[in-house]
Design a protein that fits this description.
The protein is α+β, with helices and mostly antiparallel strands. About 25% of the residues lie in helices and about 30% in strands.
Length: about 250
């Protein structure tokens, strides 16, 4: 089986959890097909012990939800190129506090706020981030430092220093504001960390901020509206929803 599968990742699942679920379903189906084929004297069905390739094209944190694009079989060769695709998110940030991880999973520290930012000020600050910029990735990220993931070092209490990386914010639109909650949509280049973007916005506003919700809605031309729920992942659904192209 070869193609692309769009999955709506729920909160609490890792990206690998979704990959493992799909791989497990395919492996079990392959095993059953092989058994049925053997009973009929047909040995052409692939051996269930052979490796079933499934990979994703961009990690979503466990606390985030939304579109996960999976490549299956021969399409896993497309992963390196597809990782570089632009992505679109719906995000919520909480003002007046910061987090050790940049999101709701970390230790939250309240900030001292003297004047609440206006809607006009927030929109103005958001506009400042549109375009190409240098961004420092979060210490709690999967970037490798001396052969280890940055988040592993950070969790061990070690200092993690990551160099700024170039990214592009194509679009950044305020959708609602009711202090301390701000929601916005953004279209960004690959390699952009929304947690870092939120922290930088909080610094500009002088309030501090952390990412409290995140949902990915698009990866290149692939849309969340066409994704299947993890509750619906079975062999027949995968076959029906699989996307193929040259």
């Amino acid at each position: 089986m070869d193609g692309i599968l769009l999955v709506d990742k729920p909160k609490g699942w890792t990206s690998f959890d979704v990959v493992a679920k799909v791989r497990g379903v395919l492996r079990q189906a392959q095993k059953e097909l092989r058994s049925q084929s053997s009973e009929l004297g047909n040995s052409k069905i692939q051996d269930p012990r052979s490796k079933i390739k499934v990979g994703h094209t961009g990690t979503l944190d466990p606390s985030a939800t939304g579109l996960l694009v999976l490549c299956i079989g021969k399409y896993t060769k497309k992963v390196p190129d597809m990782i570089r695709h632009n992505k679109t998110y719906e995000a919520e940030m909480t003002l007046g506090a910061t987090s050790t991880t940049g999101d709701q999973e970390g230790v939250i520290a309240q900030s001292t706020i003297y004047d609440l930012p206006t809607t006009e000020l927030i929109q103005s600050v958001l506009n400042e981030f549109i375009g190409e910029q240098m961004q420092v990735p979060p210490a709690y990220s999967a970037i490798k430092v001396d052969g280890k993931r940055a988040y592993e070092l950070a969790r061990a209490g070690k200092e993690v220093k990551l160099e700024p990386r170039k990214c592009t914010i194509h679009d950044l639109v305020l959708t609602s504001y009711d202090y301390p909650k701000v929601t916005f949509t953004c279209s960004v280049s690959s390699g952009t960390y929304i947690r870092s973007l939120v922290e930088d916005i909080g610094k500009k506003l002088g309030t501090g901020a952390y990412m409290s919700e995140l949902r990915r809605t698009k990866v290149a031309e692939f849309d969340l509206h066409n994704a299947i729920s993890t509750d619906n992942i079975d062999y027949e659904t995968i076959k029906k929803e699989l996307i193929t192209y040259e």
